[in-house]
Amino acid sequence: MMFLSIIFFVLVTHVGFVMPTGELKPKNIFLLAGQSNMAGRGGIYNDTKTNLHKWDGKVPPQCTPTPNILTLSLNKTWEIAREPLHKEIDNLKTCGVGPGMPFSNQILAKHPDFGVIGLVPCAVGGTKIEKWQKGTILYNQLVDRARAARQYTSGNIRALLWYQGESDCGERDSRLYMGRLERFFNNLRHDLDSPDLPILLVVISAGEGNFLRNIRDAQLNINLKNVVHVDAMGLTLLPDHLHLDTKSAVRIGQKLADDFLYNFYH
Predict the structure, then answer these.
(1) Which of 23, 99, 108, 256 has its CA 20 to 30 A from that of 63?
(2) Where is the Sialate O-acetylesterase domain (predicted)?
(3) Of 116, 103, 104, which Cα lies nearest the Cα of 27?
(4) DSSP letter for each residue of 46-71
């Protein structure tokens, strides 16, 4: 009995092991990656008393938890997803409402028979595309969590949802952005043994620097198969003029869902 307990402990603590949690197993897996607008900043405000960022705790109906939407926790167990979805992954920042929950609820509203959705949060605020290149901490974490998500389920990785680029709006980074982004997508598809992995690419509408147009052009002109562009232009922002407010986080999530269903679900 002691020996079996030791074996069980080793399995549970292994980096790639997903501990089964009852019947909580997704059929459809979606990877969420990028920076803060994917992690979610909807409802974040600056507390003037403490000068700290806080979340207002308001969960819109489009983000309502359901047993049909799961999330892969930091320790790789499937749990019922709820806002803030990225609080364990983007844990050095204050997270709020993001696109993941409204994306999932929109799919289920339009196709109730779609099956249980499993979200794999991997986004981290303030990260440039160079921080997502093959061999980096963020890249390795994304690949590890993606592999773990499908290892002990019958689910398939249906798509990568990618929302990033705000931190690359400087002159040099913007010039290198397209090549870095294409290399990241190609490497990820290769390492996940999924050469045709659908990618839903959010075209950013705000950035930290003077070269937003360059990043938008790079994203709009990326020349890879199964990459669909979802434009964030026109969505409303928080007072920092960088992050989506709750209403817009919900809207971009719904747009991502609609584009996934139109292009990849038949």
Answers:
(1) 23
(2) 27-261
(3) 116
(4) EETTTTEEEE-----GGG---TTEEE
The dihedral formed by the CA atoms of 189, 191, 192 and 193, expressed in degrees to the nearest 10: 80
Residue of 36, 104, 205, 248 with catalytic role: 36
Residue 217 corresponds to which tokens in the numbers above?
Answer: 């052009």
Q: What is the pLDDT of residues 121-146, one digit of tens each?
A: 999 999 999 999 999 999 999 999 99
Please check whether residue 85 is in contact with residue 104, taking contact to mean a CB–CB distance below 8 angstroms.
no
* 241 in catalytic set: no
Question: What is the CB-side half-sphere exposure of residue 150 using CA atoms within 13 A?
Answer: 17
73 is an active site residue: no
The Cα 248–Cα 251 span in angstroms is 5
pLDDT one-digit tens code per residue, 168-184: 999 999 999 999 999 99
The rounded distance, in Å, linking the Cα atoms of 78 and 29 is 11
- Catalytic residue (one of 104, 167, 243, 245): 243
Give me the catalytic one of 56, 111, 190, 240.
240
- Alpha-carbon distances of 94 from 33, 131, 266, rounded to whole Å: 17, 20, 37
Cross-strand pairs, 71: 79, 119
User: What is the C-alpha separation between 187 and 140, in angstroms, rounded?
Assistant: 11
Pairwise CA distance, residues 21 & 19, whole Å? 6
